[in-house]
Predict the structure.
Amino acid sequence: MEQRNWPRTRDELNESPIQVRVATVEHIFNPMDPTPLDERSLNQEVADWIEEWAEDLEKNEPITVEIYVADGRFAGRENAIINGLHNHFEYREWQSARQLRKLLREGRLSLLIGIVAIAGFNAASRAIGSSENPVIQVIHDGLSVLGWVSMWKPLEILLYDWWPIRRERRACLRLAEATVTFPAVAT
């Protein structure tokens, strides 16, 4: 895939459609996929290029994907290309939604475990109490720290880890409905 004319500023990014430049139609699709063209999965490099660009676009605007085929031999295969692109991103949206559900379920379970752990460690720390004995003081402080550390994973998941998956899912949903055009390639 030729990666020219990529946007260099946020304004350029939002002013122009997503542009994909390939030598032939076959470069749009996974070359290792033996199925007929209209059923093939997208080439991973092409799919990543489109998805990354889409994630950076304004959130509420419809997306247009322009596919430039250098050899110009795509006549009659436009629908196969459009369907392949839409199918790929519908599937990616489904995968992202599933991944998000799994992550949030893991976050809720981790939160439950973390709350039980912090309550248990803090109760044990209070039961030991403060002491002038340095060994007992280290155990007391260590149990308090362990309680808070047990909350690290659930807080990381529920505060930070789900945002990128949500952004990917939204981009894929928009790409599954994107307008696909085939402008003429200047020679």
The radius of gyration is 25 Å. The mean pLDDT is 87. Helices lie at 10-15, 44-56, 78-128, 134-149, 152-176. Residues 100-167 form one domain.
